[in-house]
Amino acid sequence: MVDFSDDRQGQRRCRDCGEWKSLAEFCTSSKRPSGRGSYCKPCFNVRSKASYAKRVKLQFGREVKPAREVADGHRFCADCGSVKPLFDFPRNRADSSGYATYCKPCHNTRTNETKQRLYGGNREYHLRRRYGIGQQEFDELLAEQGGVCAVCGDPDPEHVDHDHRTGWVRGILCFNCNGGLGQFRDSPTRLARAITYLRGTTWQRVLIHPGVFQMCSPTRGRPPSRHS
Q1: Is 76:69 a contact under the CB 8 Å cutoff?
Q2: What is the pTM of this model?
Q3: Are residues 125 and 180 in the same domain?
Q4: Which of 2, 35, 151, 216 would bridge with 177, disulfide CB 3.0–4.6 Å?
Q5: Cα distance between residue 118 and residue 189, in whole Å
């Protein structure tokens, strides 16, 4: 009969597999002086799964499906029924593996179905989540602007402009104007300096006679090159 009672030099023999392993490879147990249980972690997991399957069968009268065996670096997608490499799955920090349950195509399909069911589509979902308004509020705000960009006046703008500090929606802008405000960090001071800079470096048309204009050089800056 094998004696499992004694440990030797920080090791213990597992009661199931009979192998000597370091104490760190055994599950924690408050009932043992060493703080470790009698079974190594792999054997303990096998026992836990068997115990769970037994309880499910007794309480609910059904069998627990055995775990699907997949190669290392792969994962099984329950939606399409395929085994794929991990890089075919989205990242998910909530899962112990670091990857989502469904592969990217199936994950995207589920996401789109959820957006359609809860919000009526991706556009409504994006507006609600990012800006706190829906397509109806977007259309009303655009109508108040006359259907044009609130800055340059181009027709049919599609981008919501908001205050990055407070989150308040300010208006509907075209792509260029919305990006321009972002590049200037929504700073009136920076924009005023940019206007001053352009006025001082851009050639101006000056009316010298009715219908006659003269190009005046900027107050500073280099003259245009011959090839410009």
Answers
A1: no
A2: 0.56
A3: yes
A4: 151
A5: 42
pLDDT band at 224 (very low <50, low <70, confident <90, very high): low
**Residue-wise over 195-228: b if at least 16 C-beta within 10 A, else e?**
eeeeeeeeeeeeeeeeeeeeeeeeeeeeeeeeee
CA-CA distance, 174 to 152, in Å (whole number)? 8
Residue 1 pLDDT grade (very low, low, confident, very high; cuts 50, 70, 90): very low
- Asked if residues 83 and 70 have their Cβ atoms less than 8 Å apart, the reply is yes
Count: domains in the chain: 3
CA-based Rg of the chain, rounded to a whole angstrom?
34
Tokens (6 digits) for 12? 């213990």
The total of other beta-carbon atoms located within 10 Å of residue 167's CB is: 10
Residue span of the structural domain in which 84 resides:
74-115
Quickly tell me which residue has 């009715």 as its tokens. Answer: 210
The phi, psi pair for 38, rounded to 5°, reads -90, -10
CA distance 67 to 50: 12
Most distant pair of Cα atoms in the chain: their distance: 117
